[in-house]
Amino acid sequence: MRDPRLVPYRLRLKERSRGLRRESSPAERKLWFEFLRDRPEKFTRQKPLGAYIADFYCSKLRLVIEVDGDSHFTVAGVRAAAARTAALQALGLRVIRFTNAEVMGQFDGVCERMEQALGET
User: Fold this and answer.
1) Structural domains of the chain, count
2) Which domain holds residue 82?
3) Under a CB-based contact definition with an 8 Å cutoff, are residues 91 and 7 in contact?
4) Is residue 2 part of a domain?
5) For residues 65 and 53, is the Cβ–Cβ distance under 8 A?
6) Could you tell me if residue 8 is inside a domain?
7) 50 and 16 in contact (C-beta within 8 Å)?
8) Per-residue pLDDT of the chain (121 residues; tens, 9 = 90+)
9) Which long-range contacts (C-beta less than 8 Å, at least 24 apart) are formed by 100-108?
10) In angstroms, rounded to a whole number, what is the distance separating the alpha carbons of residues 54 and 28?
11) In sequence order, what DSSP letters do the residues of 5-25 get, joined into one string?
12) Is residue 5 part of a domain?
């Protein structure tokens, strides 16, 4: 019997997720190296979850952190992000989103919001 805490993923996403880790955006690198990497809660980068690849994921807290770039601000991008969030939430995951601009320009505020989210579990 499958562990209900484990989130299945499509095996074909594994190689793509490795590529995304190598090609992280500046905002993703900043968030990883300056906040998430050394957290006591273990986070992984570019984690396949269901049909998607989450930017950051903490399995213990079932928390997804997404960093949205410019492609998310088109009509199609907004729809895709909403569908992605709904699909991840249907797997029992919490999703919080930040923009690249927030991470790069308001880093302390982003960190405070993440601390709050980490404390809500």
Assistant:
1) 1
2) 13-119
3) yes
4) no
5) no
6) no
7) no
8) 555 667 877 778 888 898 898 999 999 999 999 999 999 999 999 999 999 999 999 999 999 999 988 665 678 888 988 999 999 999 999 999 999 999 999 999 999 999 998 887 5
9) 100/25, 100/26, 100/27, 100/67, 100/68, 100/69, 100/70, 103/27, 103/28, 103/30, 103/31, 103/67, 104/26, 104/27, 104/30, 107/30, 107/34
10) 11
11) TSPPB-TTHHHHHHHHHHT--
12) no
Which tokens in the block code for residue 92?
């029992």
Cα Rg of the chain (Å, integer) = 14
Q: What is the CATH number of the domain that holds 42?
A: 3.40.960.10
The answer, as to whether pTM is greater than 0.85, is yes
- The two structure tokens encoding residue 105: 């320009």
